[in-house]
Ribosome-recycling factor, chloroplastic
Amino acid sequence: MTIAFSPATPIRSQLTQKSIPSKPLFCFQDNFRTSGNVVSWAASANYVSLRVGARRLQPLVKLSWEKRRGIVRCATIEEIEAEKSSIEKDVKERMEKTVENVRSNFNSIRTGRASPAMLDKIEVDYYGTPVSLKSIAQVSTPDASSLLVQPYDKSSLKAIEKAIVSSDVGMTPNNDGEVIRLAVPQLTSDRRKELSKIVSKQAEEGKVAIRNIRRDALKAYEKLEKEKKLSEDNVKDLSSDLQKVTDEYMKKIDTVFKQKEKVC
């Protein structure tokens, strides 16, 4: 059963066409019999509902226009703003996490100066469960060339010692039954050059990650444009703002890189 209607103003405002075809605007995708006439129909920002006699047609009413079919719907301003905010929030959270990862990687690299962060990545087999060393012991620096590890549970000393020996920190632990002392060896010129290359590589990997996050956000904006939720000018403005955020986090990576480079 197909009934033609004159398009109402709300529908035309949501569906832009150069010319209104003479083909039926709505077709009912339902098999039913009724002698009643269409007595009412209504449109909202999201859906169109029609009533035939005493029956109200649910989302079975579909758009039939130039061989295209689909439920009549357009996003509200609130929905669009929510999507934009979600993209922006995700970008900043991921970029901030990237900077923190770069900083963490830098801190775990052994330099000539002692730092508790040198042991951050060491995991200890504590009663059959792998845990981070810093969660079961306090790590301090009595001086610029040594580390002191004081376990909260002295029975874990052997496990901590074993974990340090098995790690790649390049330091030999001295266990006196109470604490573990580590002497940080001085760096040779060759080792400094090697560390400088490692730090530079990690900084560049961080920047690549930032660029990838920017790329993902641009794709999300372009998707909204294709869905007619954003105009081309909207996307240009958002892309410009995104570039400013990207530049800001690139500078953060440069800052932590220069700080690490000084102590290598």
Remarks:
- Residues 1-73 have pLDDT under 50 and may be disordered.
- The first strand starts at residue 26 and ends at 28.
- The two ends are 80 Å apart (CA to CA).
